[in-house]
Amino acid sequence: MSESQPTSTQLHLLKTMIESLPFGVIVINREKEVLICNQRLLWMLEGDLQEFYELIEHNTLHSTNIKLRINDKQMIVRYEKLIGYEEADYMYLCSSPEMDATEFLKKEHDDNEILIQDILEYAYDGLVIVDADGYVLILTQAYADFLKVDQKSSIGKHVTEVIENTRMHIVVKTGKQETASLQKVNDGYMIATRSPIFKGGKVVGAVGKLLFKNVGQFSALFKRLNTLEKELKKYKGDFRESNKSSYTFDQLIGDYSGFKKIKESAMRVAENDSNVLLLGESGTGKELFAHAIHHASKRSMGVFVKVNCAAIPSELIESELFGYEEGSFTGAKKGGKAGKFETADGGTIFLDEIGELPIHMQVKLLRVLQEKEVERVGSSNSIAVDVRIIAATNRNLDEMVEKGEFRLDLYYRLKVMEILIPSLNDRKQDIELLAAHFIKKYEQIMSKPVKGIDERAIHLLKNYSWPGNIRELENIIERAMNIVEIDQWINAELLPDGIRGRVEPTLTRPLSEIMEDTERQTIFNCLEAVDGKRTEAAKRLGISRTTLYEKMNKYGLLKE
After folding, report:
1. Which helix (H) or strand (E) covers residue 534, if one does?
2. In this structure, what are the phi and psi dihedrals at residue 321, rounded to the nearest 5 degrees?
3. To which CATH superfamily is domain 124-234 assigned?
4. How far is CA 404 from CA 310, 359, 398, 400, 546, in A?
5. Among 91, 124, 194, 503, which residue is least crowded by beta carbons within 10 Å?
6. Are the C-beta atoms of 76 and 98 separated by less than 8 Å?
7. Average confidence (pLDDT) over 411-415
């Protein structure tokens, strides 16, 4: 008896599926070579396939539902022609009389042929299989009904178009199994396991399935979970809704090559638990990146707690971050209060404007990073926390460290993964794409359809300096949407005076602006010439290193 090695991804997927079936299966080709034999059959025959294979060679098992005794084991064997797989031609389905699969094996199939889909529908109510690119190969009918999608039209689509909040396409990229993951679908939750399929050391696909074999049972639990969720919201408020990520990487828009690389880096960063430091000018989208990193991480079902370090008075920031015990100060709540870090346990905390954190709080934050525990104000006991930190700032932390305004040890703890988000001035080719996105957004909010934005208006937007970056662009589009007529174009007349005054920048720009542009380009060229060595650049430019940092920050030239 020889065993032919499978050479196609298709056959490899078939082998993976058959291994999980609740009855014995052996698959052969026309030359009667064994391609697949699952563990269930080996267990049934105590590892001895010789007598069974001899019956195959003598065509003894080419009838329907044969009852026989093999190796002193009673079983029912059904022979089927396998349709839809290039190398596999015939399949024998084997069940002992007491198995639940007996009725399935007795079922008549047209022309004695069987599709693997028939078996999967029996074995799994909720199962989906995707290829290495995330496109759906198989979706069981019961699972399609549960997801409220059409089964036939779903085959061949990318899994993100079929299953809400799916991570199947991520599993085929990471090659890592995700077990018992809570996933939001159709305004509720389901529990799914996702497993990569390997062939020759490479991921060729992934299998996703509900932990409940019977979707009916899961639906009952699903309804119960919904009821409990409503009760929780009733008594404790909608806390989770106000502490969750609102943006994904799909919502970070841009064709600029530098932006795409940064986005790809952030997606890789999301896969682990390392601290992240987001740098960039105000309005570049640092918070959106923080949301997206959390949403794509393993902590996505945990809370996403946002803290603006600049907005909390210095005398209150310790109690806000770490909480306090009852009676620790005048006005303290009875029973005390958990801080932001305790609230974020199991999830992510986003520390925006980290450069504004007082120096005494930097020491306490460093302890949290090192010890992974917090101590409430007025308490001598520590509380362990499992929190991922994403910090952001538009300030020059290198310069702050030099001036003694930011602790060096904390800086290095935070910048395990450092991401510099480009300004809108550095990605002006994305302005038209971003403007279209914001127009679509406010069309829906205002229920006000427009034709779009005309070429002259786009030309003006591209010639503007954008001190407020993407946030300013969105505000300008929102303003234009308020005053444009329905089904009309957003034109130059609807843009602010500061933008319309720049039709011919070479003729109308003030001297100070031209000098700034010249200074920016000179600094950029000098940094390029010395391979980014800032000390050498400052020397060549005849300015101090501190002045160079200030100008680099001013002109958006700071890099990772």
Report:
1. helix 534-541
2. -75, -40
3. PAS domain (3.30.450.20)
4. 18, 9, 10, 6, 13
5. 503
6. no
7. 93
